[in-house]
Fold:
Amino acid sequence: MLQDLAPAKVNLALHVLGRRADGYHLLDSLVAFAAVGDMLSVEASDRLTLRITGPFGAALANEPDNLVLRAARKLAQEAGIVPLARLTLDKRLPIASGIGGGSADAAAALRALARLWQLDIPPADMARLALGLGADVPVCLRNRPARMGGVGEVLSDVPALPHCGLALVNPGVAVSTPEVFRARAGEFSAPLALPDAWPDAAALAETLAGAGNDLELPALSLRPVIGTALAALRASPGCLMARMSGSGATCYGLFASETEALGAAASIATPGWWVWGGGLSA
Ligand code: C5P
Structure:
C-alpha cells in the first residue's frame, strides 16, 4: 500500500489581476502548505474503488464522482491503461474551505497512482492533467511553496519561507468558490511585490501586510462569520497577521513559533469550527 499526504494549501496572499474571456480569473498568489492534510492510500486491485473515511468523510459520501476518482481515470487514460486501484481517502480537512482539500486530494491521487502503476509521465504532461482537474491542482501537485499565476497553471519558486507557526481556523461554513468570485467587485489588483528573502516570520508578515486576499471581502459579505474567525486569530497572543485563504472560509494566522500557533488554536477551539495549529509542511 502507498500513502500520500495531501497537505492543506494556504494562500498567504491572493491578488486578482484580471478576468479571462471564459470567466476564469487571473491570479497572483503566494501559496504555502501546512503540516496538516488529508491522507490518501492506494493499493493494487482488480477494480477502481474509493472509500472515504475521517472526520469530514461523511460530507462527501453522496458525491457521485469524487475528484480523486476523476484524477485516477484521467491518469490511466493518459497512460493508455485501465484504472485499477483501491483508494482510501482519510478526509481530515473541511470541505469547500479555501485550503484546497479536493485539489490536494486529486494531486495526491496523481502522485500515488503514478507510483502504483509505475508510470513515467513527463512533469509537463502531469501538470496539464492536473490543470484539467481544477485550477489549484497544479500547485498542489508540485507540493512546495510557490508563486501561482495565470488561472493557477503558472508556477514559480519563491524565496525559502522562514520558520513560522501557522494556525488555521474554519468557522464551520462551506463556501462556493464561483459564488465568491462572482461577488468580487471593483478594480483588479497589481501583482504582488515579493522580496528576495524572508529572514524570519516578522519579515514575511511585513510583506504580507502590504498584500491582501482580494476574495476576503466578497467572502465576508456572503459569510460574515469569517470576520469572527479573523478577529479570534488577531486577538491571539503572538499573531503577526491573519487573513483568509483562497475563497474561504478558512483563515490563517501567522506566528513566530509553532508553540504560539498551537496556543492560539487551543484558545480559539469552538464547537462546530475546525481549528488547527502547527507549522508549515516540511
Ligand atoms: O478550477 P476550479 O474547479 O477549482 O474552479 C472553481 C471555480 O472557481 C471556477 O468555476 C471559477 O468560477 C472560479 N475560478 C476562477 N478563476 C480561477 C480559479 C477558479 O474564476 N483562477
